[in-house]
Amino acid sequence: MKIEKLMNTKLITLSMDSPLSKAKKLFEDHKIHHLLITDDDGLLAGVMTDRDLYKHLSPTVGTSQETHRDTALLQKKLHQVMSRNLITAQTQQSLNQAVVLFYDNHISCLPVVDDQKKPIGIITWRDILKVLALQYKKKLTIS
Length: 143
Hints:
two-stranded antiparallel ribbon, three-stranded mixed β-sheet, 143 residues, CBS-domain, single chain
């Protein structure tokens, strides 16, 4: 199976200069775990996970104990906290190749980019787990 058959093409992206508050809202509103960060030309510049975000925020953000410092942290720019060492894939790579990339690089998402490094899709470890689970279930019903 090729990555293009499995990747999600409904991308949610932010620019490098977007504040953490915008990322927090997207994570909460869309119930996602990964955001692709693009540069001014729309090329992939970084990835941010919900865990990356919450590592940089105080647990009191959005509560009655929120402080001025907590609010200020929400204005920090994504380029200050995003992951820049990107492992990416192309649409024609196989699912097996993707699994190896996940395993070897200890990543939880794999942005899929075109030849110019423009993001066109994303695949996560959950997507791969879903395929394996469905294949297993299908095998059980055939047996």
